[in-house]
Specification:
The chain is of the alpha+beta class and 68 residues long. It has a single domain, classed as SH3 type barrels, CATH 2.30.30.140. It is built from one helix and five strands, in the order αβββββ. A five-stranded antiparallel β-sheet has the order 4-3-2-1-5. A hairpin with a 4-residue loop joins β2 and β3. The longest helix is centred in the first third of the chain and has 13 residues. 16% of the residues are buried.
Length: 68
């Protein structure tokens, strides 16, 4: 799923815009704030303010029209 990770990272790091992402395994939703290409992870801020790191394959972009 390199394409999705690249889209998340491109938007987050190059355009300086956070992306709403969902973890496919847990269903958690958060805002991206960074990426590590080496570890293939997306750094996410959860609604409670805590930070987490998810594998890129576990992430999907939440569209504006989709319920969170």
């Amino acid at each position: 799923m390199k394409r999705v990770h690249s889209e998340i990272c491109d938007t987050t790091e190059r355009r300086d815009q956070r992306v709403t992402v969902r973890n496919r395994n847990t269903g958690e939703v958060g805002l991206s704030f960074g990426c590590t290409i080496e570890g293939d992870t997306v750094q996410v801020e959860l609604p409670d303010g805590s930070l987490d790191s998810w594998l890129e394959d576990d992430c999907e972009i939440v569209s504006e029209s989709a319920p969170a």
